Amino acid sequence: MKKTIAIILCFLCFALDTIAAEPHYGMSIYGPEGLKLTEDEPFPYANPDAPKGGHLTLRGSTFTKLNPFSLKGVAAPLLDLVFETPTVQSAAENEPFSEYGHLAESIELTDDRLSLVYKLRAEAKFSDGEPVRAEDFVFSWKIQSDPQFNPLYRQYFADIANVQAVDELTVRVEFSRYNQELPLIVGQMPILPKHVYGRPGTEFGGDFDELAVGSGPYIVDSYELNKYITVRRNPEWWGRDLPKSQGLYNFDTITAKVYLDEIAMKEAFKGGQFDAFYVTVSKDWALDFKGPFVERKYIVRKEIPHNRPTGMQGFAFNLRRPMFQFREVRYAMALVFDFPWTNKNLFYNQYTRTRCFFENSRDMTNVEPPSDRMREALEELREKHGAETIPSGALRNPLSAPGQGQSADYNMALAEKLLDATGWTRSDDGVRSKDGIRLEFEMLLLDENWERICEPYKKRLGELGVKLNVTRVQPAEFKKRTRVYDFDLITTVTGQSRSIGNELFYYFGSASADQEGGRNVWGLKNPAVDEVIGNVVAADNREDLAFHGNMLDRILMSHTIVVPHWHLTYDRVLYWNKFGMPKKRTSHIFFENYVRDYWWFDPEKNAQLEKAMATGEKL
User: Fold this and answer.
1) Is 72 strand, coil or helix?
2) Is 4 helix (H, G, I), strand (E, B) or coil?
């Protein structure tokens, strides 16, 4: 492997003296002090000596295609092991946003952060043996403009102005504007082989549903739509000797099995049909998985604390619907969701109420009343864009879910008073209406587990004079309807990273509200929100990022675009006791992905497990 110049110069920070660009092996968002590993160091949460071999089986979701980038259909799981990006992101606790070169051997960033140059690794190859070259980078950017390409990518990489092949192994990327994150964002762009996906006469949205060709460590071995997919570790993978690849991708084969029935899925795990289980249902954790296999330690049952941001899960209002364009309606509906009762009677008191969009973040979570600086900034923004863009509560109130800390009866009475005062009167059937708009709508569900949660909420809403109809549909229909925003209310999760930024535009930005297949599920259009997101993205230090992020949080919560749910600060996990794992872990990788990418099959443990199960002995 060619060695790059392993020098981190201070020009990585924004607005320092002009210095000629030098090639670097990695980048951090706020400068060289954020890059904690040398070029030759593996990730600290990996075991470079992990043995290779064995098979891992996980559960997977339903799928209809092998193309993860086309708009229509549902992509198979595990395909992120097939495709790669220019850089790999660190999940180390002390690196909130750092990336190290992968397909790109070195990165040259200009001091104005408006362009960069990748020098590609000459040895990088796709799984069909063809080399990864600059033209593949150019193609992977240009193909995003195809209407059949998922628009989320086009929006995420929208500030890339041009990608140019300087020569076979050199790529120049130009940005349309300054954006602190952009040099790192471009490192997350999936690189597709032009000779496959750009073949003349093909349609991206339909001709590659049964094909997956990338440069990653695994290739698709076999699959059956909506049943299973198996990927096989590529013994000729070009990146196997890279320092940041050491200790990763240890299983020879990995299978994701699809279970359409929750009970069948749980019984399959207990029967050893798949190996690791991230439990998402509190009832299962409280009442299930406590039998002899757990007591004898055949199955390991753990609660693993984490400190990663939990984001916001909740019932999302579709503001495109007439009844939800009234903030008093949204607030009243949020008030009557009885979290204490739900947590006690349905969740076995396992959860904590979510107070804000950036919950459980070390420096982004600030729920206290706004500081003088914050209040002044909000008032200035409110004067600029209009009072309707920032409700007055954002200027004085602490961050919390509506009604949090008050009794259910108090919140119901307050909601009744609010709707009465704003002209929402009950008709003969008890359902409120105003100006011909009736408060009757649908909750669209995908998962049957949500039905038991929605029914008590439906009853509470009925007492308020709001009629909720609960409808559960199949995955294909759910995706079809949500892609074109054909819903009233849905359960959504707005995940947040440790370094918030560009993704906020497609969660909350006005430009994404009408974009088919986007993430702005609520249809929010607010110029004050757009400006604050711009300030978040432009922040050149962590303190400013946290300040503008908290400002955004206050504006969003004051508009009540969601009925906040709950969160956990630990992971509920189960796994069969036959694996090895690194001594040092990170909580910033999803559990099942960590198992998949960093654990390994331990033949000795497996033999002990089989022996103990045969005799009924305890491990």
Assistant:
1) coil
2) coil
Q: Give pLDDT, residue 498.
A: 87
Residues 500-523: tens digit of each pLDDT: 988 899 899 999 999 888 899 999
Of 242, 264, 298, 254, give the one whose Cα is nearest residue 123. Answer: 242
Q: Which amino acid is at 308?
A: R
- Please give the share of the chain, as a percent, with pLDDT higher than 90: 86
Alpha helix stretches (DSSP H) within 502-563: 503-508, 527-538, 542-559
Which amino acid is present at 9?
A: L
Query: What CA–CA distance (Å, rounded) separates 373 from 383?
Result: 16
Name the band, by pLDDT with cuts 50, 70 and 90, for residue 12: very low
> To 5 degrees, how large is the angle CA 238–CA 241–CA 242?
95
pLDDT band at residue 318 using 50, 70 and 90 as cut-offs = very high
Tokens of 483: 């892609």
Residue 16 in this model has a pLDDT that exceeds 80: no
For residue 316, list its beta bridge partners.
Answer: 490, 562
The Cα 288–Cα 290 span in angstroms is: 6
Which residue, chain included where needed, has tokens 């599920």? 521
Question: Are 295 and 273 contacting, i.e. CB atoms less than 8 angstroms apart?
Answer: no
User: What is the gyration radius of the CA atoms in the chain, in angstroms?
Assistant: 25
Dihedrals phi, psi of 5, to nearest 5 degrees? -75, 110
* Burial of 440: CB neighbours in 10 Å, binned 0-12, 13-18, 19+: middle
pLDDT in tens, 421-433: 999 999 999 999 9
Q: What is the pTM of this model?
A: 0.86
Dist. CA 52–CA 248, nearest whole Å: 9
Parallel/antiparallel/unpaired status of strands 440-445 and 489-494: parallel
Pairing label, strands 566-567, 55-60: unpaired
Instruction: Read off the tokens for 367.
Output: 């729920």
Q: Given pLDDT bands bounded at 50, 70 and 90, which one contains residue 152? A: confident
Identify whether the C-beta of residue 205 lies closer than 8 Å to the C-beta of residue 150: no
Residue 11: band (very low, low, confident or very high) from pLDDT cuts 50, 70, 90: very low
Residue 304 has pLDDT above 80, yes or no: yes
3-state DSSP of 253-308: EEEEEECCCHHHHHHHHHCCCCCEEECCCHHHHHHCCCCHHHHCCCEEEEEEECCC
Compute the distance between CA of residue 288 and CA of residue 268 in angstroms, rounded to an integer: 13
| Tokens standing for residue 258 | 């699809």
First to last CA, the chain: 44
The H or E element spanning position 119 is strand 115-120
Helix (H, G, I), strand (E, B) or coil at 335: helix
Q: In this predicted model, what pLDDT tens digit does every residue of 234-273 receive, in sequence order?
A: 999 999 999 999 999 999 999 999 998 889 999 999 999 9
DSSP symbol at 319: T
3-state helix, strand, coil in the chain (%, to 5): 30, 20, 45
**Tokens linked to 464:** 């308020």
User: How far apart are the C-alpha atoms of 125 and 117, rounded to whole Å?
Assistant: 20
Q: Round to whole Å and give the CA distance between 572 and 143.
A: 40
